[in-house]
Specification:
The chain has 147 residues and is an alpha+beta fold. It has helices at 52-61, 136-145, and strands at residues 78-83, 86-91, 99-105, 108-117, 123-126, 132-133. Strands 1-2-3-4-5-6 form a six-stranded antiparallel beta sheet. The relative contact order is 0.14.
Length: 147
């Protein structure tokens, strides 16, 4: 694998989420990376402190390919990144299917919010400000702006 020089573990060309192999290495909250992983999928079942609420989203929405059988990326919600103190996960595909984005504070796993993403690209969710957001971007900005 060639690297981009910024992070020796990151490939030059990121793999699309559905093609990333699953890395089931057990991780604690402090081990989850700050930035997106582009070469592998970190499933919720590999997170030692994963709340049952998050794991259950995989049964409903699946992993990066949804609920497609035999998917290399698995059927568990996958870790996306940190947004300030928030841990961001997605159950279901990034595009073209029903999905749910779930975020919780790294220091308080009981404080969580969800954003539903629909197959047509529309969505809705309430963030920490209490305002209903209709785009993933504004919902994520709500997380960023309300630590």
């Amino acid at each position: 694998m060639t690297t981009n020089g910024l992070d020796a573990g990151q490939p030059d060309v990121p793999l699309p989420a559905p093609e990333r192999p699953v890395d089931r290495t057990t991780r604690h909250t402090s081990d989850l990376p700050d930035t997106p992983t582009r070469d592998r999928t970190i499933p919720a079942t590999a997170w030692a402190e994963a709340p049952a609420e998050l794991v259950a989203l995989g049964k409903r929405f699946g992993g990066p390919r949804g609920l497609v059988e035999g998917s290399v990326s698995g059927h568990d919600p996958s870790f996306l990144r940190r947004v300030g103190p928030w841990l961001l996960w997605r159950a279901g595909p990034a595009h073209g299917g029903e999905a749910c984005l779930w975020a919780c504070r790294a220091d308080d796993l009981t404080r969580s919010y969800t954003f539903r993403l629909h197959a047509d690209g529309s969505g809705e969710g309430t963030g920490p400000s209490g305002e209903v957001r209709n785009s993933f971007r504004t919902w994520k900005e709500d997380l960023r702006d309300n630590p």
